[in-house]
Amino acid sequence: MCSMFLIGCSNSNSASSNTSNGKKNIKPATTQTLAKKTGKDITIAVANTFVSMDPHDTNDTLSYSAQKTMLEGLLGFDKDMKVVPVLAESYSVNPAATEFTFKLRQGIKFHDGTPFNAEAVKVNIDRLANPTLNLKRHSLFKLVKETTVVDENTVKVTLSQPFGAMINTFAHPAAMMISPKALETYGKDVAKNPVGTGPFKFAEWDPSDHLKVVKNDQYWRKGYPKVDSISFKPTPENGARVAKLQTGEADFIYPVPSEQAESINGKSGIVVENAQSIIVRYLSMNTLKKPYNDVRVRQAINYAINKDAFIKVVMNGFATPLDSIIAPNVQFYAKQQPYQFNLEKAKQLLKEAGYDKGFTAKLWGNNDTGAIKGMEFIQQQLAQIGIKVEIVPMESGTESDKIWNVEDPSKADIELYYGGWSPSTGDADWGIRPLLGGNDAFPPKSYNTAYYNSQEVNQGISDALATADPDKRKAAYEKLEKAIWNDAPWAFLSVDDTIAGKKNYLDGIYLLPDGSLDVSNIEIKQ
Which domain holds residue 227? Predict the structure, then answer.
C-alpha cells in the first residue's frame, strides 16, 4: 500500500543494545579485519523482482531503488529525508505555493548524449501531468497547470491551486528525469530502457534473474561513481538472501530478516545496520460503525495494546513506538502524549461507553506472515478487555474487493484493519491526507480505512497546503496531529526500522527512511 513501501563495523562478539521499550539497536563493535574483495563489481540481493524502470509509472519502493542508480530528479532526499538540490542548483517558491522556479545545473547530459536543460524538464513534467497517459504517479502532479521554459537553464512550474507540499513532491523519485530522446524512441518501452543522468547506465535486465548497471564515465559529479558496476539479484527467500551475503555472492542485502539480524552481525565480515524508517504501523477503526463511532471505545483500544510488547514480539525489537500520526523523520512531525498501556483505564472507558462486557470484532489485514503475527498479537491484547477478535487474513485481490474498491462508505464491511504506510514524499501531507483526510480520502479514492472525517482536521490540512510558509504549515500540522491523536481513529502501534546487511569493505551505501536504497557514494575500502 505504500506510495509504495547505516554505518558501522562489528565483530563476532557484537550484540544488540536493548532499550526499555523493547527496541533493539545493532551495536557496532570493535573493528574487525576487512573481508576480501576482488574487483569493483558490486552485487546487491533484494527481496523481490523489479516492476518497472519508468519512475513516472512506478509505485513500488524497490523499483525506485534501482532506478535511482541511473536517473536523477531536480531535487532529492538526503539520508534523513531532508530535501536537497540534485539536477537543480537552486529553487524558489511564491508565497501562495502555486509557482515553483528551478535554476538548473549546466553542462549535464543524459546517457544518450541528449542535453539536460529546461526543455528536457518540461517534457518530463508535462508527461507526468498528462492524465491521458494513465501513469501511476500522475496523481502527484495532477495540479500542474503549466510548465514554462524561462530560459535554457530556468524552468517554472505553475499549479492550478496552492499546494504547500509540492517541493517534497519534486524530490520524490517519481519526478526523476528521463531523456526526451529515449521517451520518443522507446515510448512505453522506456520502462525497460531507462536513460537518465545518474552515476550508472543501464546495461541489462532479466526480470527473473538480475538487473545490471555500469559506471557512467561522463557523470557530472567528478570522481564518481567509485565502482564499476552494480548487479541487483532478486532473492525472495530470506535464508537464501542471507546465505548470499555470508558466502560473498552478494556484497549487500536488504532487508535482513529481523530474526537473523543479530546472529549474522559481525561474522564473515558482515555488518548489519538498523535505523528508524518513516513506515508506520497502525490499527484503523471504522468510525462510521458501532462501537467504533464512540471515541471512548477507540481510546480504550489504544490503552489496551502494549506497544512495547508489540515491538518486542511482532517486530523482534526492530521498531519504536508510534507517538504521532507520522514518524519523527517526516517533515512537520509533532510528538504526542502516548497512550500508555493501562488495562484498567481501557476497561473503564469501555464501561462508560456501555460495553463493559466487551464485544466481538473482525480484524482484516494482509495474509503474509508478518501481518498475521501482528493481528494475532492484537487479538490477544484486546481479549484482556473483553473484545473477542476474529482474524480475517486476505490476499491482495480480496483486499481490493472488500476494502479499496468499496464505493459506498455506508456499505463498507470493514471494522478493524491492520496496516502500514510510508509517506514517500517525506512530508506530513502524504503521511496524513491519504489516510485520514476526510471524505476525499475514503476508498476507492484513497486509503482512509477509518472513514475518519473531522471538520477541524480537514480545515487544518487545507490550511497547511495553502501556503509555502514553513512556519504556517508547521502550526497547522501541530494542531491537526493533536486533534487526530485525541480522536484516535487508529490504535497507534510502531515505526519500523530499516535493516540492511553488507560486507565491511563497503562504504557510502545506505537505506533511506522510506526504505529505498542510495548508492550514489558507494565505494570499496581497500
Answer: 16-274+500-524
